[in-house]
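Reopening closed ticket. The problem is back. First fold of the pair:
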Amino acid sequence: MKQMKNLLVNKYEISTNEELKKVASKYNAEVLTKVRIADVEKIENSGLTCDEYSYALKAHFDFVVTIGKYLSPEFVIEFDETSHGQYKTSIKNDKLKNSICKKLQIPIFRINTNFLKEVGELPKFNRRSIFAGKFDSLASWLVEIWFLEKAFYEAQNNGLVPCDEPFIWSSFIGQDPFAQSRLYLHNLYKEKLCTTYIPRIIKGHDIDEVAWATLAILPLNNGRYIFGFAECKSVNFSAISAYELCEELAILNIVDEIIKYEKSEFLGLTKQEIEKKEEEFRKKYLIPKFLE
């Protein structure tokens, strides 16, 4: 018997598929894999360039979350492996796909292995915010937050929510997986480990404003520094943007580094070392004037 080709090519794609399906099923949604771009959105006379049109005919999305009898597309998740940005062909294709999504108004969020980790609960911390939530993964949380926004605007259209009230995901009880990390820093500040519980945030983006990154810096009481870094990529993903999420993940990264610091696995950085990190960040990313 002829062996058929697997649609999901590695364990990370398999894990992503499982995480997305787990939450999507709660909202009667389906997750389709390896769907051709041209089958998600009409591309004829859509304003795509020749290169974009040709690519849309042959390329696919990793995961498409759909709803309804006719599997109407809601949004797209792309899984980027660690080596993804190291090859010229991959970089070129990613830019084409991002540009297509921007022009055709297709919501897309790009994730990596960090999005498959459990989020929302921290060790050595027994105070829990009523807004905090624990999630099996950030990938599944993205699905949750998407449908939360959808329900919010449906309620608003039905007059159940004031028409001028904006959707703020962190204001919903049990939907903020990052509340614990901020409270954790506040707790450490009270223990006089750090000079502040609010890290200094430096935020920048790539030339296409698809990738946003955050460098978060926390000064310790002994004159050393802990830093967190995160980069996120999204287009038209209204529930939470790469601009928002990269800051939350950078602060979460700081907490991970502090846990290592407290175990003496990491000594923190000197002032000169942290200044070098900031210089490298500013060389790689464009800093908007409104954030300077």
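Second fold of the pair, where the issue appears:
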Amino acid sequence: MNNSTSTVGIREYVATMLLIIGVKLSDSTPALYFDSLKSAAWMGPLIGGIITTIPLYFFIKVLSLYESKNLHDLNILLFGKYIGFLFSFIFWVYGSIVISVDTRSYVDIIATLYFVKTPTIVIFIALMVACAYTAKKGIQNLTSMSWIILSYVKITLFLALLLTLKDANTFAIFPLWGPGIKKVVTESAFKTSLYGDFLFMGLIFPFFTSKKVFSKGSWLALTFLTVEMTIAFVLYLFMFDYGPASLLTYPFHEVIRYISIGDFLTSLDTFFFPFWLVASLMRFSIYLYLNALLLGNLFKIKQFEYLIPILASVFLILGMIPETPSFTIFKLRDPLYELFSPVFIVFPLLLWGMAKLKGDFKNEPKKNNA
């Protein structure tokens, strides 16, 4: 794996995962959990993180076995030319829908909370142009930029959540199991795709400086994200209680609009907004890059970077279709989570099973010693 394309180290990879998954705290994702899990919503990302360890373990095992292969290559190698192509194409379609839906969701945040007089289409175009421009810089620059901005983003997030403690209502955590243990576990399992980006990062596996980068980096990132998500959900619960929290489409932005430091520092949302915007930009830039990379793999397009502006334009058009975005996008995101969660859990096990049937694991010690 040590070749000219192996450019992503562990700190860049971990930073990338902490940004693209961590920024979901700021959109409608928490509201989806509060809507179904009530006062036990904070258990959702915790249980989901624990469940994720299973598919992630098997995914790492398979990727480490085929060191020079990415996710699409594995599909072709293990399932055959046609079935493997179909799996990759389905992943591409799903990723395209997620980008269209989530970018419109973030545009809605900007338009309704910060730039109320600016036409939605103008904000959407500006976002997609910025994402396309950033995505074309390549995976090395994208991951390096993620590392550079990570500390600023996480410090501001920590500060925002810390300031909510002065108004915390700790009794809001009761009843502890919310709607019941069975529903909490079931709903959490069907939202495990919260961490599904780990699967798509398999597309850049050959770019890592060593196979240990993906292994160690994934475990570090998953541990940090599980703790971060759980704490953030607890603080949302303390701040709003589960009833109001389930009605707030964007709890994080309501938090930063509400908090203040004494009587002299108010309207702190203008301070936090730029850091959130940069993190969101990085998330969708990386999504665009991965989407173009997968499409290039599917149709053997070597210069896949040229697809990025075209895809950005397509996602812009698709994202503008919903007429009532706040309601429609919220309703779309829940089935997307529930649809992909079983795939995220089962697919790595399926990859591992196919590799086992082919007998490739018998050669693993020889490969490692070579």
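Update: turned out to be a display glitch only; the data is intact. The chain has a mean pLDDT of 91. Residues 29 and 250 are 8 Å apart (CA to CA). Please close again.
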